[in-house]
Specification:
This protein is α/β, with parallel strands linked by helices. The chain has twelve helices and eight strands. The radius of gyration is 21 Å and the shape is elongated. Bound molecules: guanosine-5'-diphosphate (GDP) and magnesium ion.
């Protein structure tokens, strides 16, 4: 992984690390003891890893300690790092390479304010930078401001956008986006959606309709249905994700990791939702988005490698 990317992870997890640093530092000097287990549990809780995942992790570590009897502090640290990594899915081999079926169609979902529009803008910009032909679709038509916000990103990252007037049918915008992406031989179409919660049932229906209509515009689409979760919500983000269960997400975009001390929640996502964290937001700027890298995450969390 490039140094610049590792640095972004390190900086992005600063708040979480600040919270747990003292705990890890004391843990480094401990061998297996009651004090070690108590402190480990407390430190994981502080990072908002969440009760079920903390429990599973501790149980697994107890088992390995029994089997392997790590005699040095170093061996114990090594074992712990390994178990943290084991909670996370393996990294994509090349997250910037798109599968051959073009255009790839991705649709982005999530509650209001989670960071959908920002993530669509960042993703479009990063893929465009890597030489892919990208089109964004503004299917959040509930508010004029939403399409305007995405249009702002289109200008900023120099990627075309398909939008229609306020009140347009979101599924129609999504359909037209994919059709345009097909006829213009795009590599990737990314569709932004609305995320209001007070009309929960109709919203889920609407999202279901969008997902369905895409397949008619390009068989096989959407290739990814990305659920956007706000890391500052910590464990509550997991409850939020359950609302979207019916829509069939394929992966997670986790935003605002830079703005929270609850970064440990990443460890719970894969275990509890069964969905991989594919992208993470580490700030508000166009370049503040990275593919998920489990080693960079765990090392930045534990304060290792710097
Ligand atoms: N610090 C930080 N802020 C973010 C990130 N992603 C989004 N935001 C901010 O979160 C707010 C809501 O984002 P927006 O994309 O409009 O959310 P949407 O309602 O889901 O489309 C905006 O102020 C964004 O700048 C991130 O990764 N880090
Ligand atoms: Mg939005």
């Amino acid at each position: 992984m490039p140094d610049a990317e590792r640095t972004r992870w390190w900086q992005g997890l600063r708040r979480t690390r600040d919270r747990v640093e003292a705990g890890w530092r004391r843990l480094v000097g401990l061998r297996v003891s009651e004090e070690f287990w108590d402190l480990l549990e407390e430190t994981l809780y502080q990072a908002d890893v969440g009760p079920a995942t903390v429990e599973a992790l501790l149980a697994r570590m107890h088992e390995r300690v029994r089997e392997e009897r790590p005699l040095s502090e170093e061996a114990l640290q090594h074992l712990m790092r390994g178990e943290l990594l084991n909670l996370l899915p393996a990294d994509a081999s090349d997250p910037w390479a798109l599968p051959p079926d073009r255009p790839q169609v991705w649709v982005v979902l999530g509650v209001n304010g989670s960071g959908k529009t920002t993530s669509v803008g960042k993703l479009a910009g990063r893929f465009h930078q890597r030489g892919h032909r990208v089109l964004m679709g503004a299917a959040d038509t509930f508010r004029a401001a939403a399409a305007e916000q995405l249009a702002g990103w289109a200008r900023r990252v120099d990627v075309p956008i398909l939008q229609q007037g306020p009140g347009a049918d979101p599924a129609a915008v999504a359909f037209d986006t994919v059709q345009a992406a097909v006829s213009r031989r795009m590599d990737l179409a990314i569709i932004d959606t609305a995320g209001r919660l007070h009309t929960k049932a109709p919203l889920m229906q609407e999202l279901g309709k969008i997902v369905k209509v895409l397949d008619r515009a390009h068989p096989g689409a959407p290739h990814e249905t990305l659920l956007v979760l706000d890391a500052t919500m910590g464990q509550n983000a997991l409850r939020q994700a359950e609302l979207f269960q019916g829509v069939g997400a394929t992966g997670i975009i986790l935003t605002k990791l830079d703005g929270t001390a609850k970064g440990g929640m990443v460890l719970a996502i894969h275990r509890e939702l069964g969905l991989p964290v594919q992208w993470i937001g580490l700030g508000e700027q166009a370049e503040d988005l990275e593919p998920f890298r489990r080693e960079a995450f765990v090392d930045s969390l534990m304060g290792r490698g710097r």
